[in-house]
Amino acid sequence: MSEEYRGMALGMFELDNLVACFVALDAASKAANVRIQGVERNRLKSGACVKMRGNVSDVRAAMEVALAAAEPISTVVSHNIIAAPAEDTEIGVEMTILK
């Protein structure tokens, strides 16, 4: 795992529109103390998945703002927060970011 994210919660959301992902990610980063870990475009569609890191309360606040910003312009496909990702989860997260 990248040491810069050790001990941080992981928040993920997927939208069906890449532009909406950037709108949501901008809102999230302004709303709370989070770091954007990656944006991954969907291979079969026009959407993307955003991964952000921070403490649990900051990730939760950022997620709420991001989804509220995205909902008028996009469909929220999925979203979740992992408070303390396991080491094996971290490996999977890094593999998808570097694909």
From TrEMBL:
SMART domains: BMC. It comes from the Bacteria. InterPro entries: BMC_dom, BMC_shell, CcmK-like_sf, CcmK/CsoS1_BMC. Pfam families: BMC (PF00936). Its main location: other. Belongs to the bacterial microcompartments protein family. This is BMC domain-containing protein. It comes from Wansuia hejianensis.
